[in-house]
Amino acid sequence: MKKSLQTSFLLALAALVLSAPGAQGAKPGGVAVLLPSFVPVPAPEPFLYPVSPFDITGFMQTATVDNPGDVFSAGYMEINGIKIRVPRNTVFQMPATAMTWQEMFSNAPQAYKNLNQSGLALLDGSPAAGVPAPFATYEVHVQGNRVINNGSDQYIAGLVFISQQSINSGQGFINCIDYNKMEIWLSAALQKAAPCTGTRLRINTPNGRYGLPDPNEDLRFGADEDNPTISARTGYPMCLPRIDPAVGADSLCPSWNRPRDSFTGAFSTIFSMGAAVAGPVDKFGITHQAGYPNPTLMLVKPDPFEQAPFEVGDYITWMGTLVQDGVCSPSQPVSSCQYVSANTMTDELGIFTAPNSFPVYVTMSEFRLGVGGIPNPLFPQEAVEKIFGDAFTTDNTQLMDLYGVDVNPTNGTRTHRFFMSADPFGPPLGGLKGRGRFRSVIGNFLPATREMAVSSRSYTKGANPDAVPGPLVYTANGLRAGVFQAPQFQFIFPENLIMGSPQIPLTFQEFPFLAQGSGPYTPFNASCTPAPCTPATVGNLGQLNPWPSLSAPSSAPGTTLIQPPTPNAGSPQAVPSGATVNLDAHLSTDPQGMTMIYTWQQSAGPAVVWQNVNPGNPVWTFTAPTLPPTSAPVTLSFQLAVCNGYTCSGVVPVNVTVVSSTTAPSVTLSASQVTKLLPTTTVPPAAPNGTRVTLTANSTFGGLPCCTVTFLQTGGPAVLNLTPAGNTATFITPALAPGTPGPVVLTFTAKAAIAGNPATATATINVYIGVDTLTVVSVVYRQSKSQLKGAMTDSLPAGAATITMTPLDANGNAIGSNVVMLYDPTTNTYNVLQDITNPIPNQVRFTSNFGAVLLSPVTRIQ
User: Fold this and answer.
1) Domain 666-769 has CATH 2.60.40
2) Rounded-to-integer distance, Cα 610 and Cα 608, Å
């Protein structure tokens, strides 16, 4: 990133100081270095920026929903004492699921639902109703903007994620499995059967995707039932058999999918499956191996179409929530009354499928997306697009492709936008076998998406998932194979690069799923019958409201990213020493009509002190430096950047010239509808009701236009309605009485003054009105020389008029062009000498620009 002007200068200045003779290092007693006067060091100002970011993590203390009957309803929550507005249409991200804010309440345990509570806030519950406070605390991570606008001051959420104690998680070896209670136990010596000891886990699988559902489960913190979040490290879907393998077989979680090592007899932790033939789709829309469910007819074991079971001795990593299902006693281990309801389990197994065959499975690890942004150019910041994360696949022989999932806000259609590919080949070409690493700081990853997807080319053959022929294929008890698609929450927003500079608002306008919505919404955990089927929708998920910035962006589908404002720093100014100066950006415009944020910064000249720093006000004020009398002018340079809460303009400059207070302005005065005379100015003769005339004063100070102008008539008959307006004034000439000799002289003055400066300037102009009187001296045509010669006088001041002569025939028709007569001051006459050969004029017409017209015969001589 480029350094600011001030930062670059300070670095250069420091280098000069340290290299100068006698320069001292940074130690007690060192020489103080004063910055030159033209390096701006603005004083701190007590103000709040209209839009500022916040990123808060803490326990949810309170939570409310505005309208419990509206699935898209807004609400409030409090974290660490800060009240945060949750906008309408917010989708609340849980560890492995997502839902609207209202659904967090409607899917709460019944006791809390009866109180219109979520059961996740510290203050939930009611002693009077016999409802206890939540058993555990729930931690919320909220990213949003604080918005101060028109008297409102709100923390408004943009992205919300909730878990239990920073994604409550742990690792350990499975030491025992209780198939009757569907429990996995960790952290004790290996045991063959119940009773088990150690840490107790149950899989939170509301639809039974990974085993039997837990009767105490909180659906909101369940596993992802569409993408395998209960899986091996490679992404292969795992399960807990619904029947004790010692008693019977679970065809959806068969024991033969965990082969044993032929030498030790232990369950294999690394193995590859063979290619299997797909059988017909069952009544639930799921594809199994040909011959299923008869084991003797299935040719391939382990079976890539079914999940693999957890076994004692596996090392797993889990995430979940702590649940109490009994009364705890000090004499009993805590596992007797509390367990972990797991929404994510990763078994440290290397289960691979046959190369370049189907089914293949993939999973995504943590991803981070840099959402870029257009930074305020006066506040340097990191604002780049970048992406990095990991994904895993059961087929390490084929590339993996990463996609952003775009959602049509009108119909909800999802399409995949290709980002990049990764190579999961493993040694010797890469690292861990089956892991693909996505790393890029080059590319266009905007607009940001709520969901991302990763696919294996064993499934897509290199095509976009949208273009893969045929219907979607569901295997492993209803999981879609070949593509893993899920929400991701890790976004990298622009950051300031200079400590102490203003914070950068979070750029939610670059998130279409927040700005435009996601179209028809399917309620959380919705179901339908008979399967396979598509659950009904309940309206469109639209734009966040209120929007977490000053103004909401367009919610129209296909709208491009918000355009930056157009800055206007005003015209250069010249001001007297010590004057109050206003820098005015109110002529700046925003193409979307959004509220604008103004940033002024001084870039050169003696440092000034701002008097009213306020980013919401286009006018910033300071006092010009005081200059000694008769000293040379000083130039102050400033830069303006204008933002709209989302993007910013480029920088535009403006200069302010400070002039000594003893310097006077200059002024000239002119009149409209006039013809220039020597040395005065005239207007045409007055019409019956007078003629409208505009006086214009052109005044300058320090070489720039200024000033406050006062107009005054100082001579001649009084005019009608002398009306000043800035540097102009209009009036109507008086109607002269018939026979009044012309011209009549009207005299005006204009006085120019600049605020704070005692010196003024005055200009005077004469305006002539009335009809001119013409007198012919002689008009002759000398036939021997073919020349027409004329002379005449008028009643105006010497040389004031412009008089033309037109040759005419006997019928008064012009037989030649107009000829301007020349004024001769020695004879005080207007003269003309024109060569004319044929036809010879019989008469001429004299015309004055003051309205006089006179015909005269022509005398012929030899």
Assistant:
1) yes
2) 6
Omega cis (within 30) before 707 = yes
Residues 362-486+497-502, CATH architecture: Sandwich (2.60)
- How far is the C-alpha of 35 from the C-alpha of 29, rounded, in Å? 18
CATH 2.60.40.10, applies to 774-861: yes
| CB proximity list for 471: less than 8 A, separation 6 or greater | none
Of 488, 486, 525, 479, residue with least CA distance to 219: 525
pLDDT, mean over the chain: 83
Give Cβ neighbours of residue 309 (< 8 Å, ≥ 6 apart): 238, 239, 240, 241, 245, 250, 253, 254, 255, 257, 258
Rounded-to-integer distance, Cα 799 and Cα 677, Å: 8
Closest alpha carbon to 61 in 84, 92, 41:
84
Q: State the Cα–Cα distance between residues 25 and 20, nearest whole angstrom.
A: 11
CATH 2.40.50 fits 51-163, yes or no: yes
Q: How far is the C-alpha of 643 from the C-alpha of 594, rounded, in Å?
A: 9
What's the pLDDT tens digit per position in 241-270?
Answer: 999 999 999 999 999 999 998 888 899 999
Collapsing DSSP states into helix, strand and coil, what is residue 11? helix
* β-sheet bridge partners, residue 709: 752
Among 298, 293, 309, 252, which Cα is nearest to 275's? 298
Q: Judge contact between 443 and 387, C-beta under 8 A.
A: yes
CATH number of 573-658: 2.60.40.10
β strands within 293-413, DSSP E: 308-309, 315-324, 338-347, 350-352, 362-371, 381-382, 385-393, 400-407
Q: Is the pTM of this model over 0.85?
A: no
Task: Quick: pLDDT tens for 690-717.
Answer: 677 888 888 888 777 888 888 999 988 8
**Residues 303-348: pLDDT tens digits?**
999 999 999 999 999 999 889 998 999 989 898 999 999 999 999 9
Per-residue confidence at 180, pLDDT binned at 50, 70, 90?
A: very high
